[in-house]
Amino acid sequence: MTSRRSSSDHRTTPGHVSPAPSYASSQLTTSSRPNPVTAAAKSFAGIFSGCFSPPESGNSKSLGDSEEFKSSSTVSNASRAGSQRGRGSNRGISISSYNLIQGKEPGIVKFTMEEIFQVTRNFSPSFKIGQGGFGAVYKAKLLNGTVVAVKRAKKSVYEKHLGVEFQSEIQTLSRVEHLNLVKFYGYLEQGDERIVVVEYVPNGTLREHLDCIHGNILDLASRLDVAIDVAHAITYLHMYIDHPIIHRDIKSSNILLTENFRAKVADFGFARQAPDSDSGMTHVSTQVKGTAGYLDPEYLKTYQLTEKSDVYSFGVLLVELVTGRRPIEPKFELRERITAKWAMKRFIEGDAISVLDPRLDQTAANTLALEKILELSLQCLAPRRQSRPNMKRCAEILWAIRKDHRELSASNFRSLSTTSQRSTSIKDSEGIK
Ligand SMILES: Nc1ncnc2c1ncn2[C@@H]1O[C@H](COP(=O)(O)OP(=O)(O)OP(=O)(O)O)[C@@H](O)[C@H]1O
Ligand SMILES: [Mg+2]
Predict the structure, then answer these.
(1) Is 194 helix (H, G, I), strand (E, B) or coil?
(2) Which stretches does UniProt call biased (Basic and acidic residues) (predicted)?
(3) What residue segments make up the domains of the chain, in order of their start?
């Protein structure tokens, strides 16, 4: 059985990204494109020059710090000065000035340790739902009945560098609100405890669904919906808030699904404010952070962070969505180990179908959508950030792909049912004879 949302579930992102009707689906049809495959192939050689293959565990829950780039982040003095110029007063906030944010953000609750102990039954293992680089995650019910996820920082992590990271997460979470971003309810900062309380998203991570851990196969229509939700969330972070935010850790284990298979992007621990284009900044200098396999090679080389690093990670995520494979698959033979590299090569050679997740049907609609999604991935994975589309454009393209996919699926379904009706009536008439 496949999980599928109702086709009538036309989703928009209220007040944020409204796909214009002009997203001509023909923009992506094979005939109309100015041979992007050849064009992209020219620059392809450089795409993965910065890739590396550290070991990645099969189980996202067991990922430890050692597997990821979680060194503390520093902004160069020049960048820091630049980032503070002309920005809001909640820049560079220290713990001591934190109450200022509280005053400005009336919706944020500052929890007490007693409340947290009470709702998590003293961090009972039976309430624990996950473990990540930040620490343990617990499911809890607040006194007002709201079901939440309580993220408790590991002490060892906090001792090293979490102070900055925690503040980063609080600042970011408090400023954003979008249907496709995990909602922030409150936090606790007391002694060496650092806790964030966020919306509980009940249906597991995207990675778990691609692994079929929940039993059902996520069909391509649902995967396209997820991609669009994520694109909307990131577009919002990049373009529709006062001080744009670069997520920096877009990956399938940071995408949580609701019961209706709507996607919510989580984990803003690494989020960084985007360069301030008003003051002429083109990038923020920072030590590399993110997760192996999703990292923008240009960022890795130069430490210069822009929104396009998120676009690169999104390109990796798109490949993950259509292939079902993790970005790095250490168990596969060398040429298939870096999934995006392998898939792009096959796509350029005209053999896209060979990378389709074997769990998905090779229907005409799926095959066409696969090619178009890989074409978009190729653009997102361009070695130079200038050649990558922005997230808004990605959302528009995906919207058009979904429209074509729905239409083709419906027409195939219609012709199939007509054929089966015809064969039934032939059988009936044969029966009469
Ligand atoms: N808001 C939430 N609602 C429901 N489950 C959650 C929520 N946040 C996290 N989880 C669960 O807890 C697990 C660990 O989450 P966490 O964000 O700490 O780590 P991660 O995303 O797996 O890795 P990383 O630390 O690299 O981000 C997730 O995989 C998910 O299963
Ligand atoms: Mg996470």
Answers:
(1) strand
(2) 1-12
(3) 25-68+217-413, 77-176+180-199
